[in-house]
């Protein structure tokens, strides 16, 4: 893929933490709502909580449904933060907790703190809440969890009545009460995506379906993709930041596979790739004046002079020490004529020598070292060493003493080692001369027949490249134990490790074992080895030599045609990670680029899970197949009514392209209609607030509220799990 450099890159800044937006306080309760009995509507979502008065068009409070409670040891105080106030303190952010386990409320203690926060912010300062409550709850909530909420509301706050409903159905009601009797509402919520059919005003929860994918799993999936894509990123990415990437940059592709294929086009890739810039502080480089630079240079020069003096002093001390050792060795050698043999042998052993020959060797070595050190100090070049002599090698053993025979044995070993070095040196010189002759012949052939020489060089290069690629492919296959190459390797290992003894006698007609006579036989050991052999480096050097020759003498062979041009830095994988910007392998990425994320394939991959849950390993069907399964459970007349009103709501419904993709996909599961479009897919007017708005519309209908509300008397009589069935809530079972 021929990638081009993008001239101008648009950067999208990423905040390190979620911004703190304080929740306002309201003080008009006594004047406007204290004695009116106005219903209070709470959309109690697991992500955000929305609360307000039913007579108003919008909720007064919208905040993240969480609480942080911790003790500040320095100030010796206990602190509690609710909602968006959590983002005002670092300790509060790290201690934030939710009352929900998934979409279900499981912690009444945290829920009570959140409700206290709501009532205080709304300005309610009475001993009891004298207002009917309309509150949302999850689809098919367990009785135990509803009982916890009812007990909290009736016992702690003494509310007069409570009405529970499903936020998705409230949203359907808010987008047209006259259309809420028939349709399918798809709620892409924080944890799950639900599809709920409503036929003739009745909610068929027995046919409702759930896909275990929503805003929270999508944010976690985005976070994992980024962590895998940038394992060495200098900053720790949080779920809040991955949630921001999902909300601001993701979209649903009309044709997922087709759009992925289009990313190979550099022009398309440039339009889809988004660069996310994380904050960083550039290092301050102090520019030094000429005087300061001169002072530092003089300081470095002085330090170098001191080091040289120290080294010279160390060499002098070592030379003096060796001269003293040599004087001791010579004194011991000369004392042999004046001392008895036993005394001299004892002194010899006390100085660490076993025999007199060891003393002679030490004298010779020390004297040579002293001579080299003095010559180095005086600047005298050493003369070439004379070849060693071995005078005792050719002398018969009968003419030698015991010590001379031992010395002859040593000289024989030294002579064998010297002869081997000479043979290796001669062979190396011969090989060098041979290579020079080949180079001269190659140069003569190139001058005489340049075209033929180029063809031969290209053929050699192609053969070597094919060999390198075949080895690379074999290594990749060996990593898969089910591959054919891996199975052959295991057969070879089994054959080599077989314990069956070979027959002692060769039967008549049986071939003789000739393993090893052919060099190809030894390839079996390379086949079973996973390690890179020494040939790889030789092949790489040979290939580099061929390509350098072609670059020099073939004008049509460019640097882009070399093997290095296909390295990862020029592949799609590199641009997938680092974008289309300039890249210098010697310099690497700039400091600001190391704090950048490139968002491209992930923009469509994360929301595509709604249509293909198998991408993340979910054993569930996608939106279209789930909707098709729901429609199969109704007769033709009901199906025709349901598909005329398909409403998409919830936070994930805000992802661009979702409605167009659903509209296109739903067409494929419906019967063909040549006259007109026989279905309707639409998005809620406000995917986040329509649940609260629908609940407020119900709360304003006093006659209806009297029929569907659960009063305190009914709570005490039937229990906290009791509800009254209506077309916008769960069924009582």
Automatic annotation (TrEMBL):
<comment type="similarity">
    <text>Belongs to the actin family.</text>
</comment>
<feature type="compositionally biased region" description="Basic and acidic residues">
    <location>
        <begin position="439"/>
        <end position="454"/>
    </location>
</feature>
<keyword id="KW-0175">Coiled coil</keyword>
<feature type="compositionally biased region" description="Acidic residues">
    <location>
        <begin position="512"/>
        <end position="522"/>
    </location>
</feature>
<feature type="coiled-coil region">
    <location>
        <begin position="454"/>
        <end position="481"/>
    </location>
</feature>
<dbReference type="InterPro" id="IPR004000">
    <property type="entry name" value="Actin"/>
</dbReference>
<keyword id="KW-0804">Transcription</keyword>
<feature type="compositionally biased region" description="Basic and acidic residues">
    <location>
        <begin position="416"/>
        <end position="431"/>
    </location>
</feature>
<feature type="region of interest" description="Disordered">
    <location>
        <begin position="404"/>
        <end position="454"/>
    </location>
</feature>
<keyword id="KW-0805">Transcription regulation</keyword>
<feature type="region of interest" description="Disordered">
    <location>
        <begin position="494"/>
        <end position="523"/>
    </location>
</feature>
<dbReference type="GO" id="GO:0005634">
    <property type="term" value="C:nucleus"/>
</dbReference>
<dbReference type="Pfam" id="PF00022">
    <property type="entry name" value="Actin"/>
</dbReference>
<dbReference type="InterPro" id="IPR043129">
    <property type="entry name" value="ATPase_NBD"/>
</dbReference>
<keyword id="KW-0539">Nucleus</keyword>
<protein>
    <submittedName>
        <fullName>Nuclear actin-protein involved in chromatin remodeling</fullName>
    </submittedName>
</protein>
<feature type="coiled-coil region">
    <location>
        <begin position="309"/>
        <end position="342"/>
    </location>
</feature>
